[in-house]
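Dear colleagues,

As part of the handover before I leave the project, I'm documenting each prediction I ran so the next person doesn't have to rerun anything. This entry is a single chain, and its sequence is reproduced below.
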Amino acid sequence: MVIDKLINKIKETGNPTVVGLDPRLDYIPSFIIEEKYEKYGHSLKAVAEAMYDFNKYIIDEIYDLIPAVKPQIAMYERYGLEGIEAYLKTIEYAKEKGLIIIGDIKRSDIASTAEAYSDGHIGRTVVKENSFDVFKQDFITLNPYLGSDSIVPFLEDCKKYEKGLFILAKTSNPNSGEIQDLLVDGKPLYEKIGSLIDKWGNELIGENGYSEVGAVVGATHKEQAKRLREIMPKSFFLVPGYGAQGGKAEDLAVCFDKNGLGAIINSSRGIIANHIKENIDGKDFAKASRQAVIEMKEDLRRCI
């Protein structure tokens, strides 16, 4: 099962870190983007190719230290078809390096639309006698706001193709409480969602005791994370908000079990944009990302 593959990679690297590959134009060193502008002009193609090269530099420096990467599809979609191609090529390159892919897509819909999303992102797209794994992602993120109708098609594809989900439960953004903390029958909505996630994952438990159906739980909400761990003992947590958003390693211990498993912690700009902080613009820029990964690993292991 794919959750066991992720856990085994975490054990192998000793590092519960996932690096968010969320490139922005102002993160890309000048030598990369200027080369692409010269070749393709000031075009969508130039930026998309620059993003892909940027990602390759980062991956080459960190693939041996981490279990997984998490590309955020919106950063690529804004550049249209060229950006989507960069997204797909990034996933393929990361998989060649042995990394698990968490596609941060946050999709949500019902009926045939949900089936179409699932076919494309974790299932198979069929054309006559041929079947295609289009995006080649191992996990994807989903929004549960539309209820079980929006989740069931993805659960079916998880069973058929050994794929996984991380469903939004309690997110790290400051205003998440406007909806997620609302009381429903005397309980916060995020607890209700947590109970549903636990239920949805009951039939997809791997050999390590965790389900293919995990939860997104923000690093900036320690007490809520503690409660969700009680509600969802079999759900692996994808935890955004560490570092740049204010989440501290000390706050994350509640997400893990007694064996130091149960969660994978995301850092995006804190790693991929570390060269800006270190004032490195040349071809060695990605070494700053490697150093950031090492420091994050040490920080997390100190507290787990």
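The longest helix spans residues 44-62. Residues 2-303 form a domain with the TIM Barrel fold (CATH 3.20.20.70).

All the best with the project,
I.
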